[in-house]
Structure formats: C-alpha cells, structure tokens
Automatic annotation (TrEMBL):
Residues 37-65, 290-331 are annotated as: Disordered. Pfam families: DUF6318. It comes from the Bacteria. Residues 82-232 form the DUF6318 domain. Residues 1-27 form the signal peptide. Residues 56-65 have a biased composition (Polar residues). PROSITE patterns: TAT. The keyword Repressor does not apply. The keyword Mitochondrion does not apply. This is Transcriptional regulator. Keywords: Signal.
Length: 331
C-alpha cells in the first residue's frame, strides 16, 4: 500500500488551471490517502468482543452496545468556533480544532472510537489550515501515518506561501460496522471510508477560480504504483511534480472517497491510543485504480499516479505545460 493515493497528483492542479504555484505547494491536499487494498494490510481476525481476557482478546475488550457505523463525529472543540472560509486575501482560518478529553485515555472500544473521532477532526483541521498541531496531543500516530500527515501539511503550507489554497476543503471519515474487530495481535480494527471534498472554489494567481470536474482526462496517462514514500519525496520537488504533461481537463471529481482501516493499539504507560491508518481503493470520484468510470467521468485519467515516478526526460515539456497553465489562469 502506497503512502498516498494514485487517484490524484499535482497534475490535477494543473488541470484546474491553478498554475505553477499551486502545483508546487498545495497538491498534496488532493491525496491524503494511500492506495491498494486496505483489507490486505489489516492482518487476520482475532477474538470476539466478549469482555473476557484470552490469548485472542488479551485486553478483554467488550462490545459497548453502541452502533458506530456511519459518519464519525467529534463534539469537543477548543474555544468558540468562528470558522471563516478562504478568500483571495487569506486561506481558511479559525477552523474548529479538536480538544482532548478524558474519554481518549480509556482502554475500551469506546476509547478507541473516541480516538478515531479525534483523528477525523484533526485531519479536517489539517486540510483547512495546514497545521498538525491537533496531532501533537490526545493520540499517537504510527510512524508511517505520522509521515503522511507531515508531508500533507508541508505541501499545503508551501501552497499557502505561494498564494494558492482551496476556499473550503473538508475531510471526513465514516465507519462500516457498528463495532470494531479484534485482530490476531490483540489490536482493534475499524474499517471505513475517507472522504475529501476540495470545495467549489480555489485561490491561485490572486483570483478565485472554480474547482471544476472534467468530463475527460489525459488518455495517455499510465497508472503506476508509486513507492511507499513517493509523495513524501516528491513534495520537495516542484519540478518533479510537474513531470507529466498537463491537460486542460479538470480533476476527476470535487469529492473523492477511499476505503480505509483504522488500527488501534493502546499504550498503558501513556494512556493513549496509537492509530495506524491505512488507505485503500478509491471508490468514488477519481477513477478507482484507473479502471471503471465513476459518475460519468472517464477512466482514462489513471489520475496522475505517476507524478513522482514519471521519467525525468519529460521535465522540459512539463515545465512548458506549467507555464502555459499559469498563463491561462492569469488571463
């Protein structure tokens, strides 16, 4: 499973007409998730939530009687929520920042769900602000999940520095079952879906521009499997990020949905949950693994999965495409 989605890349911003500055900075917002099959990364099924400690359920987890399926919601936030969408003068600000509660420290199914809800709120805060502050307390992240979060933050902030941002992006999660599973290692697992909504508008070149879904995409794009840290490495290289020829099309969709797994391990010493979040196939929006079309969108896009691995020999033509896109955006 790769660190970030094959479904989008910096080329998507070129298709938006947002120009070179947006490509250089904000495009990781398009792919906060990994690709592949999340279920294959989860391990085998363990014991049942019967409350009895055993080798299959070493922590004695029990069903807490709640139905957690559906949208994950967090209800505890710092201070007054006075959220402002982005404008041509500033990116989104005063986004709701999740507040740590005692419920996060419970080594129970309830505590695990609370940790996931906190993560979901922190991810929405990150997508809106570029800040990882909410991830510095309350929960722990696996090293891989943390590196993905940091790479996404760096790219969003780089875009903001260059004057490019989405006006009202959002991130959310939904769970697929009422209760989690116990894995063979004793950890808990919730399967679900991740939704990223770019919003209707973006700012680039000092102007508000629509985020428009395209009816087609580059038929020449070939899907590839980026390495585990492909986007992490690519984030620091704006030239490499534009290494495939841009088209005039928009992104495949304003909204993308991907499968995901939340795997939770409780640390008794710190009384905190460590979350490892693995992302899977794109099921809505961009072409799922570059195959069947979604919502009438052509599957030919393969949506720029090769942004980090395209041949360097394409750099010259890519730079020309970036310049053309920037010129078009400014006109």
């Amino acid at each position: 499973m790769s660190s970030f989605s094959q479904s989008f890349s910096r080329r998507s911003l070129l298709r938006l007409g947002l120009g070179a500055s947006a490509v250089a900075g904000s495009a990781a917002l398009l792919s906060a998730c990994g690709s592949g099959s999340s279920s294959q990364q989860s391990g085998s099924q363990g014991g049942s939530l019967n409350g009895s400690k055993s080798s299959a359920n070493p922590n004695g987890y029990s069903d807490d009687g709640q139905n957690y399926s559906g949208l994950v919601e967090y209800t505890h936030y710092e201070g007054a929520v006075n959220y402002e969408q982005g404008t041509v003068d500033h990116p989104p600000r005063n986004a709701p920042k999740p507040k740590v509660t005692d419920a996060l420290s419970a080594n129970t199914v309830t505590g695990f769900h609370e940790a996931i809800a906190y993560f979901a709120a922190a991810m929405d805060y990150l997508v809106k602000t570029g800040s990882t502050d909410a991830f510095s307390t309350g929960i722990q992240l696996s090293s891989k999940t943390r590196s993905e979060v940091d790479a996404l933050s760096a790219s969003i902030l780089a875009g903001v520095e260059k004057g490019s941002w989405y006006v009202n992006p959002s991130a959310s999660y939904a769970l697929s079952s009422a209760q989690p599973s116990i894995m063979s290692d004793g950890n808990l697992l919730f399967k679900g879906k991740y939704t990223l909504d770019f919003g209707a508008e973006a700012v680039a070149e000092g102007k508000i521009q629509p985020v428009v879904a395209s009816a087609s995409a580059s038929a020449s794009a070939e899907p590839t499997e980026p390495s585990e840290d492909a986007l992490v490495s690519d984030a620091a290289s704006p030239t490499a990020s534009a290494s495939a020829t841009a088209t005039a099309a928009g992104p495949a969709s304003r909204v993308t949905v991907q499968e995901c797994d939340f795997r939770g391990r409780y640390h008794a010493d710190s009384k905190m949950w460590e979350l490892s979040v693995a992302y899977g196939a794109t099921v809505q929006g961009a072409t799922a693994q570059g195959s069947a079309a979604q919502g009438g969108v052509s599957s030919a896009s393969a949506a720029a999965s090769g942004s980090a691995s395209a041949p360097s020999s394409a750099a010259a033509s890519a730079e020309a495409s970036v310049e053309a896109s920037a010129t078009s955006a400014a006109s």
